[in-house]
């Protein structure tokens, strides 16, 4: 069996490794557009954070590991078209047109930061750094800039703002919604972050949509939004990513949003063709299909598609859109449905916020937890956490609780260890049962 | 634009034959029909033959008989003129072109001429004809796609699917769980309740918007200009947040233009209930163009009828309707003229009263001048807004009218007196807000109708007296109506 995988980022590599595990004799070929392998998207943030000393170290797998697994890979291979009737893939490799046949094809071509609405966003002076070569260019440009404008206040944009402020850069963020990170947090949870953003001197423009970006002669860039504009040395695009799949043939059905339509087994409308990662919609927290381009989803879909190559064995369980990060001195995490997103659901939800002491010690730090649960059944649907202490791992417990449909009463009974240095009388994630009992008193 | 614009000339004549027969109790002489259509004998006969063929093709229970002198229509109780229109529109090439454009967004001449089985030159001709009608919407079919402001394109499609094409088809094909959910989401976001009829309207709009959402290079420049006074509007803000949040769930990029399009639609097409609209009216900027024209027109109406103050709920209702009319005039261009309402209102001038028609024209002038919109004959939107004003004025006058007591005191021979009094009462029955009876001396009346000047004015006490010029004449009816209106205000 010959398995061709288009794209060697997380989804493609996960699919390749799982295929190898299940089919020791299969020939596996990875076609990767980038000239380098397995660059961690936004690895630039790791560099700015000084967690790696060289951008080139932002890799999640090495060439040797692929070789060891007998996985062929072609870097700098630009897929131009696929023919699902003939089962061929045409690609450009080292300036030559190549054709490869396949028995099974997995499309893991990822996504790009594209904007068709913002005029001038495609120009080079507008930085995007999801890919390695883009990151190199961005690194050099930002280094020589004093003032950076970031378009988009999502997770990537806010992380970048934090890291650039630490480098003493002046930062402007322009976000079209009325608060940052709106996909993951409710407005009542974001206050500490927005306070920290404004305390750090960042100019935060909310509810503003960028219309055009113009390069000026003095190497400056002007971003126009509403009736106003801001001129800075560099502009970073951190808007939503979208798949870019010009090579597909007409037999592969797409959704209106141009993602590839797949079934629960990640099969496309064409036999033997699968699609994974940022190319597809997933079943979201409310079981409706939405677009959730996260690396954890890419890896899991890669594995599921590889499992189903010969016959449908496991269905993809869906995504809770679980995230965790640290920005402006706060650890924040979110999983499942937010209260704001519950308007898209048929369920009636209730929510509750609690301020929780993390240990039994007098000097303990606190965390704010927000629960979103079904008003009728009390099944937990979503949770958000924010704290100056590292509570990120707790979100995984909560994600598991949501995935296994635990009620808030079930959570109260979950068995957690007690140790005064690490927990308080009632464990953080048990506290849900004390909702509405004045846990916010000390805030007032 | 009229529904007939989608039909060929001979088809319009054929439909007119049906229409004339319905208007003339199902029968018309051959010569009257010739006269009405201003066509030659030969073409009338061709038309009648063509009708016979078309009727035979469909299973409608309709027949047209022609015995050389009289043309007669026989239609079963379950068939209306609408069905006949539908049958003709189903065969229309122009309708097919629009449907194809809607579904595929783009076409090549070769592809479409093959699909419609017509020659390329006929297709060019049809497109050219369509473009003359689309002009009033300020949109155009060019290079195989609809060009123009995005709001206008969606508005045209909406009018097309709501009034011209069979909407049940669109709904059955596209309206699924996702659409119902989208409406529910909108209700939750706006904290509003949408009625079942409006729900259907909204779903059609959302289906259209969904098929247009990924079109590249949508034009919204004009809309952006129009929206400048509304960027801080509370309803717009809610819609903007909803639009951004909704599309953040998909791999679709939208900007404010998308939110602006929905704002204009929701406000112009009376999607919100009166109650929800009232909540919005209380917090909207009263100096923004639509609100300020609403106020100006409302004041003009109040002054015209000499109202001191309108009842609270009626005033709310008036603003509700005025905002819809004015939002249309402010944001949109062109319209599809629907036969029923407009023709009924203009044909029933006697019931409506010509002064109301005249006053409605005045109101239109006030609003269009304020919006700096040039009134033009070719723009149906101005024509279609007049009956809406008329309708609103009727609503206001009938709701504010007190019941006037009218006494009929005819001075003629007894037998005729009773008969003519009865006939006069019957003729006055359509007038709202009056109670008519044969005059009784001991009662008090607001208006007395008589045919002779009374010898002693005082016998009718405080009542106003009108001397009939000619019993049962239209001339008198017109005057009586005006008097009733005066007495009412």
UniProtKB/TrEMBL annotation, chain A:
Belongs to the class-III pyridine nucleotide-disulfide oxidoreductase family. Keywords: FAD, Flavoprotein, Oxidation, Oxidoreductase, Redox-active center. This is NADPH-dependent 2,4-dienoyl-CoA reductase, sulfur reductase. GO terms for molecular function: oxidoreductase activity. Its cofactor is FAD. It comes from Alkalibacterium gilvum. Coiled coil: none annotated. It holds the Pfam family Pyr_redox_2. Residues 330-427 form the Pyridine nucleotide-disulphide oxidoreductase dimerisation domain. PANTHER family: NAD(P)H SULFUR OXIDOREDUCTASE (COA-DEPENDENT), PYRIDINE NUCLEOTIDE-DISULFIDE OXIDOREDUCTASE DOMAIN-CONTAINING. Signal peptide: none annotated. Residues 1-302 form the FAD/NAD(P)-binding domain. The keyword Flavoprotein applies.
From TrEMBL, chain B:
Keywords: Transcription, Transcription regulation. InterPro entries: BglG_antiterminators, Mga_HTH, WH-like_DNA-bd_sf. It comes from the Bacteria. Gene3D superfamilies: Winged helix-like DNA-binding domain superfamily/Winged helix DNA-binding domain (1.10.10.10). Residues 78-161 form the Mga helix-turn-helix domain. PANTHER family: CRYPTIC BETA-GLUCOSIDE BGL OPERON ANTITERMINATOR, TRANSCRIPTIONAL REGULATOR MTLR. This is Mga helix-turn-helix domain-containing protein. It comes from Alkalibacterium gilvum.
């Amino acid at each position: 069996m010959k398995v061709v995988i288009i794209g060697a980022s997380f989804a493609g590599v996960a699919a390749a490794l799982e295929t190898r595990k299940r089919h020791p004799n299969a020939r596996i070929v990875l076609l990767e557009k980038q000239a380098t392998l397995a660059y961690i998207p936004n690895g630039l943030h790791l560099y700015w954070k000084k967690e790696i000393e060289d951008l080139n170290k932002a890799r999640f797998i090495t060439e040797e590991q692929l070789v060891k697994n007998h996985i062929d890979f072609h870097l700098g291979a630009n897929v131009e078209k696929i023919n699902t009737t003939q089962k061929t893939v045409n690609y450009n490799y080292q300036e030559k047109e190549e054709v490869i046949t396949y028995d099974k094809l997995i499309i893991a071509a990822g996504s790009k930061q594209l904007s068709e609405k913002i005029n001038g966003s495609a120009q080079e002076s507008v930085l995007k750094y999801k890919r390695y070569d883009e990151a190199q260019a961005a690194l050099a440009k930002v280094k020589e800039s004093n003032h950076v404008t970031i378009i988009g206040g999502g997770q990537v944009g806010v992380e970048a703002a934090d890291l650039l402020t630490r480098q003493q850069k002046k930062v402007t963020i322009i976000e079209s919604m009325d608060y940052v990170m709106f996909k993951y947090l409710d407005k009542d949870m974001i206050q500490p972050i927005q306070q920290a953003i404004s305390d750090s001197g960042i100019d935060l423009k909310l509810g503003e949509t960028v219309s055009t970006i113009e390069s000026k002669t003095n190497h400056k860039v002007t971003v126009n939004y509403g009736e106003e504009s801001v001129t800075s040395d560099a502009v970073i695009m951190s808007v939503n990513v979208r798949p870019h799949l010009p090579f597909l043939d007409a037999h592969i059905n797409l959704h209106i949003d141009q993602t590839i339509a797949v079934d629960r087994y990640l099969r496309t409308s064409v036999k033997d063709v699968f699609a994974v990662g940022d190319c597809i919609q997933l079943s979201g927290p409310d079981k409706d299909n939405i677009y959730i381009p996260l690396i954890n989803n890419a890896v899991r879909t890669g594995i599921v598609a590889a499992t189903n190559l010969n016959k449908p064995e496991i269905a993809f369980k869906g995504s809770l859109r679980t995230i965790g990060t640290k920005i402006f001195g706060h650890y924040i995490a979110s999983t499942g449905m937010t209260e704001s997103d519950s308007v898209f659901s048929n369920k009636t939800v209730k929510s509750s916020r609690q301020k929780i002491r993390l240990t039994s010690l007098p000097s303990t730090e606190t965390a704010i937890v927000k629960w979103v649960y079904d008003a009728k059944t009390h099944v937990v649907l979503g949770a958000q956490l924010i704290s100056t202490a590292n509570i990120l791992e707790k979100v995984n417990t909560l994600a598991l609780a949501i995935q296994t449909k635990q009620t808030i009463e079930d959570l109260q009974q979950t068995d957690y260890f007690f140790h005064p240095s690490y927990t308080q009388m009632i464990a953080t994630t048990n506290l849900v049962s004390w909702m509405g009992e004045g846990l916010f008193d000390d805030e007032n | 634009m009229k529904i007939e614009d989608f039909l060929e000339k001979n088809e319009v004549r054929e439909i007119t034959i049906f229409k004339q027969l319905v208007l003339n109790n199902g029968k018309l002489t051959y010569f009257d029909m010739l006269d009405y259509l201003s066509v030659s004998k030969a073409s009338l006969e061709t038309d009648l033959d063509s009708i016979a063929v078309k009727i035979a093709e469909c299973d409608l229970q309709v027949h047209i008989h022609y015995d050389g002198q009289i043309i007669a229509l026989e239609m079963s109780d379950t068939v209306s003129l609408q069905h006949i229109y539908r049958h003709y529109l189903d065969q229309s090439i122009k309708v097919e072109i629009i449907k194809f454009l809607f579904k595929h967004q783009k076409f090549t001449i070769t592809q479409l001429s093959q699909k419609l089985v017509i020659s390329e030159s006929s297709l060019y001709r049809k497109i050219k004809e369509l473009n003359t009608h689309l002009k009033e919407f300020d949109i155009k079919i060019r290079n195989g796609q609809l060009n123009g402001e995005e709001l206008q394109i969606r508005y045209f499609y909406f009018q097309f699917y709501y009034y011209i094409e069979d909407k049940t088809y669109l709904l059955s094909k596209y309206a699924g769980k996702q659409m119902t959910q989208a409406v529910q989401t909108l209700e939750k976001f706006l904290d509003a309740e949408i009625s079942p009829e409006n729900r259907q309207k909204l779903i059609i709009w959302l289906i259209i918007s969904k098929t247009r959402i990924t079109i590249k290079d949508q034009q919204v420049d004009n809309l952006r200009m129009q929206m400048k006074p509304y960027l801080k509007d509370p309803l717009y803000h809610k819609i903007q947040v909803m639009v951004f949040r909704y599309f953040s769930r998909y791999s679709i990029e939208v900007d404010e233009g998308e939110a602006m399009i929905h704002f204009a639609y929701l406000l112009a097409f009376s999607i919100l209930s009166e109650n929800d609209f009232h909540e919005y009216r209380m917090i909207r900027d009263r100096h923004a163009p639509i609100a300020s024209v609403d106020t100006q027109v409302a004041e003009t109406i109040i002054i015209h009828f000499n109202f001191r103050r309108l009842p609270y709920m009626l005033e709310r209702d008036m603003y509700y309707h005025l905002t819809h009319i004015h939002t249309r005039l402010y944001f949109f261009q062109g319209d599809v003229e629907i036969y029923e309402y407009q023709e009924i209102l203009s044909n029933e001038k006697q019931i409506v009263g010509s002064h109301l028609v005249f006053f409605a024209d005045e109101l239109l002038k006030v609003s269009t001048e304020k919006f700096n919109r040039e009134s033009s004959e070719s723009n149906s939107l101005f024509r279609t807004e007049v009956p809406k004003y008329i309708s609103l004025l009727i609503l206001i006058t009938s709701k504010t009218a007190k019941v006037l007591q009218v006494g009929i005191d005819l001075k003629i021979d007894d037998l005729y007196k009773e008969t003519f009094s009865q006939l006069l009462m019957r003729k006055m029955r359509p007038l709202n807000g009056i109670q008519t009876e044969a005059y009784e001396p001991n009662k008090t009346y607001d208006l007395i109708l008589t045919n002779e000047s009374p010898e002693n004015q005082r016998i009718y006490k405080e009542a106003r007296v009108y001397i009939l010029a000619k019993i049962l004449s239209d001339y008198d009816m017109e005057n009586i109506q005006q008097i009733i209106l005066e007495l009412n205000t």
